[in-house]
Amino acid sequence: MLCQNIHCGLFEFCCFNWIIISGGTMAVLKIKFSFQRRVHLAQGLWLLSWVAMFSGGVTFCMGLFLKMELLRRAEVMHTTDIHVVPNLLMVVGLASVGINLFAGRVCQDSMDSTRFTQWKNVMIPYFGVSLFFTSMLIVAMALSYALQPNLEESLKVGLKNGIRFYKDTDTPGRCFQKETIDRLQVEFRCCGNTNFKDWFEVQWISNRYLDFTSKEVNDRVRSNVDGRYLMDGVPFSCCNPASPRPCIQEHLTDNSAHFNYDYHSEELNLHNRGCREALVNYFMGLMNTIGPCVLSVFFVQMSVLASLRYLQTAMAALEGQENVEVETEGYILEKGVKETLNEAKETLKKLLQLGQVDAEPAPGDAEAAEGKAAS
Amino acid sequence: MAVLKVKFTKTKRDKLAQVLWVLNWISVVTGLILFSLGLFLKVELEKRRELMAERELHSVPNMLITVGLIACAINFLGGKICYDCVDTNKFLRWKLVMLPYIILTFFFTLCILVGALMCYSMRGELEEALVVGLQDAMRFYKDTDTPGRCFLKRTVDLLQIQFQCCGNTGHRDWFQIQWVSNRYLDMSCKEVVDRIRSNVEGKYLMDGVPFSCCNVNSPRPCIQYQITNNSAHYNYDYQSEELNLWKRGCRQALLEYYTSIMHSIGFIVLIIWLFELSVLTGVRYLQTALENVLRQGDPECESDGYLLETSLAETARSNFNIIKSLGKLNQINTTDSDRDPNINRPSTAHYGPDNVPPKQIPLAS
Prior knowledge:
heterodimer, A: mainly alpha, two-stranded antiparallel sheet, 11 helices, B: mainly alpha, 55% helix, 2% strand
C-alpha cells in the first residue's frame, strides 16, 4: 500500500524493509499519516499546546489560591501536612507551562524537517519528564482526599490550643489567639471545637478580670482540681445573629436565669456546629471544586503529549527521505509494551554499569601477559 | 478660518480610519464597563435596601446602565462607519449620516459627563436615607415576630459585625431605644417594672448594647450590659475603655463605604468620557477630510480636516439662522416669492411711455 505513492527506487527499497520490520513486531496504536494529515496534526497540536499552557497557568493559580487559604488559617492548624497538595499543584502548573511551550516550538519546527531533526535526541527524555509531571496531577488529587484525616487531626489540636489560650491576651506569642478565634467563630458561624460545650471546660476569662475578693468567684475557682474559673458561658462570637431574641451567653444551662428560656429546645441562640467541622467542610469544598478542574487539565495535557508523540514518530520516519510528502506511520510505542520495558531495563543497566570499574582483565591481555612471561 | 486645521494625505486618512475603527471597538468595551459599573452599584444599593429610607437613589445606577448600553450601540455604529471610510466609495453611503451621528454622539458624551457628576453628588441623598433608615432599623430591632420586620435584627447584627460599627452615630443610640422585646421581659420582676415606669413612653431602656457591637480586638471578654456602671465589672473604667465596643457609628461606616465606591466609579466614568470625546474628535476630522476629498474630486489628493469650517462665532451664527429659518417654514412667505423665478406673476417691468412689451423674435429653426 505504501509503495503506491513512492516513485524513486531507493524509496521502494526502504518501503520493502519497512514491511519486513512492521510484519515482525507490533507497534502500539499505529496510525497512518498522509502529508496533509501531518500538517493538520501539527497545526492542531500548536493550538492545543496554547490551550494546555493556559490551563497550566490556571492550575498554578488554583494551587496558589488554596495555599493562601490554608495560610490564612495557619494559626488554628497544628501541622502543615496538607500543604503538599497546593505545593504540588503550583509546581506542576509551572512545569506544564514550560512543557507546552516546548511542544509548541517543536510543532512549529515540524513544518521544516531539517529543523525538526535537531530535537531528535531530546524527545525521549522530554516525554519522560512530561509524563512524570502530568502524573503528579493525579497524585495531587488523590492526596487531597487521602490527607483529609490529617487535616481534621491538625485542626483538632490547633483549635484546642486556640481555645485554651483564648484568655492569654497578655502573653507574647499568644496575644492574638482571642482575636483569631473570635473572627473564626463569627466568619464560619461556628462555636468551639466540636460544639459550644468545649467552652465550659476551659477558663476563657483571664484572672486579670476576675474579682478574687468576691465569694462567688472564689467558690468557682475552688470547685475544681486545677483551680480554674469554669462557667457555663461562651464568648460573644458564638452568638447567632439569626436568633429572634437577644443573645444569651451566660448561665446557658440554667433555665431559671432567663425569662422564657429552655436550654434544650433553644436552637438558634448560639451557632450549632463546631469550628473543626466547619473548617474541614470549607477546605474539602474547595478541593472538590478544584478536583474536576485538575482532572480536565490532566486530560488536555495527556492529549498534547500523545499528539506530540504521533507527530514525532511520523516525522522521524521521514528522516533521510527527499520527498517529504510521503505517507508515514505514527505510533505511541515502536514495539509492544513488554518489549519496550525490557529494552528500557537494558539501557538503564548499561548506564549503571558505565560507572563501575572493570576489574576483570580482558582475555587478550591475559594471553599477552602469559606470552611475555613465557618468553 | 477653520478651527484646528490639519492636512491629511491619503495614507494618513487611511491610517486614521483604521485607528478609529480599533478605538471604536475599545469604546464598545468601555460601554460594557459602564454598564457593569452601573449594575454593580445597583446591586450594592439593593443589598442594604432595608437600611435605607425611600429616596431617589436608584437614578444614578439606572443612568449609568442606560448610558453604558447606548454607548455600546453608538460605538458599534461608529466602528462600522470608520471601517467603511477607508474606501472613498463606501464613504458615500455614510456621507449624509455622519454629521448627524457626530452631533448625536457629542450630546451623548454630555450625558456621560452628567452621569459622572451625579456619582459625586449622590452623597447628600445617601446620608439622608441612611440617617432615617438606620434609625428605623434600630427601632424595629426587637420586632422579630412582626411580619415584614422579622429579619431586621439579623440585618442590623450582620451590618454591625461586617462594618465594625455600633448604632447610628455611636453606641449610645442603643441606650435610647428598647431593643429587647417584651416577650423576653419578666413583667413580674420588680426591676423590669421599675425601668419601664421610669420613662414617659413605657420603654425598657438600659445601658446595654447587642452582642454585635462587641469589638473582636478587645483583650478582655466583651462587656455588653451595664456599660456606664464602673462598679458592675471588675477593673473596668467606662471613660477609658476604648477597645470594648466598636467606636464608629454605622451611618458613618456605610457612608464611607458607598462614597468610596461612587468616587471610584465617578473617576472611571470621567476617564471614559475623555476617551469618548477623543474618539469623537478623530471621527470629526475623518469626516471633514473625506468631505473635502469629495469636493476636490481626486481620491488620492491631500485634503484638510478641521473641527469647524469657520470660526466658532460664525458657526454659531449660521446655525442660529438655520434654526430661525426652520421655524419660518410653515409661515406664508410673501417676500420670498419675488425672488423665486418659478412662480408666475405679472411683470412689473417698465417698457417705455406706451408700456407695450416688445415683439418676441421667433427662433431660427
